[in-house]
Amino acid sequence: MSSDQDDAEDDGGIEPPTAEVAFAERYAALTGRFVHAVELAAASLFALLFAVGVVDLAVQVVGAVRSGAIVDPLVVIGFIDTGLLLLIIVEVYQTVIAYTREEDTRKIVRLVIYTGVIAMVRKVIIFRTSEYATTTDALVAAVAYTVIVVGLVALLFVERSADGVLGRE
């Protein structure tokens, strides 16, 4: 070993990248591109599911109008349920797109919270005590939904408050 190399090691100098490091960097870049492509494929799938869902909802509404079932509150609640499910798909799509664009983590967290709020509102709207074996089971589910909704709203409030404090409104 030369004295220059000894000095570089003693001084904490940086050695040139080895073949292993160069391979690892190329491999990491390749897998990064692969993950990005999969994310875009997932976003495309969610967009397709959304389009199919909108068409299906429209067909259901037209069928309910023609048959007169549109006046049945349970049918209308079913349409609301489907509409909220479509909004969940849109929120998941936006979350995936935010990941692909490597956007701010706070924006991604906000999208996830919005998705959770929509999902829980959907659960509350379609909640029926008759779907549970006992009234105690229904009460436990209702309390659980309430706790989750309150928690999500609190998270959203904290996230929004932090934006105000940081001047990001």
UniProtKB/TrEMBL annotation:
InterPro entries: P_starv_induced_PsiE-like
Residue ranges of the TM segments: 40-62, 74-96, 108-126, 138-158
Keywords: Cell membrane, Membrane, Transmembrane, Transmembrane helix
A Gene Ontology term for the protein's cellular component: plasma membrane
Annotated compartments: Cell membrane
Main location: membrane
Claim: Glycosyltransferase is one of the keywords in the record: no
Membrane topology: Multi-pass membrane protein
Protein name per its UniProtKB record: Phosphate-starvation-inducible PsiE family protein
